[in-house]
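Service request form, structural biology core

Requester: graduate student, group of Dr. S.
Request type: structure prediction, single chain
Budget code: on file
Notes: please return the result as structure tokens.

Sequence provided:
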Amino acid sequence: MKMPFSRTHRRRNALLTPGMGLATAGVVVFAVVILILRTVFPGAIAFVADPLWRVGSGLAGAAGTTAGAGIDQATLAKERDQLLAENAALRQQNATLAARSSDLTRLLGTRTSAPEGILASVLARPPVSPYDLYVIDQGTNAGVRVGARVEGPGGAPVGTVEDAGPATARVLLYSATGRTTEGWAGETRMPITLEGAGAGSFRASLPRESAVAVGDQVYVSGDGALPIGTVVRLDTDPSSPRAIVHVRPLVNIFSLPYVTVAR
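Core staff response, request fulfilled:
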């Protein structure tokens, strides 16, 4: 049974709304315009689209440049930190070399020839080692021998080698408690027997009438008379014919970094 024409026509009109009709008409018109432009003006579409493409390319390039700048900044920051660390290490190395150069200059002077003795570093000193005992980093392999004289800056004698191994040696300082060393005092070279008092100091006993005074140099035998210390105090007692002489060494045994061992 066929439906009346009027009802079928109304149903089709319900499916095709005014909005859909306008949209369809717009698409058709746009397609026709594009077709005409491509036929009549082939370069028109490229002319219109070119600014849009340029804007898009510019935005993409700007985004890439920004990303690249971020990467470059991170790389530069890393390189800067690395250079700062290397600079700090070089400054520390330079300070170490300057201190070593200063210590060696005090010990050896400004001479350019090789030292006559065996140069050695002090590995242990008081109070790390027993008082008035050094441990040095040269031994029999370098020519160190037991009994050899050990000197500090300016050739000041500090002790003698007590024991030597292949790579290290022990140095007994002249100021070791109870150790005696023969020498002279003053310009008149008054004979004196120095007795170690420990901690780098000496004392001696002289006649009270001797010409030794505070400030006089004290010497020990070596290549001639070698200065070892200075008289810093004289203790006298009216009831005693002798005076106690206190001598301070020329070098500070607690801070000496290098010594030379006589061959």
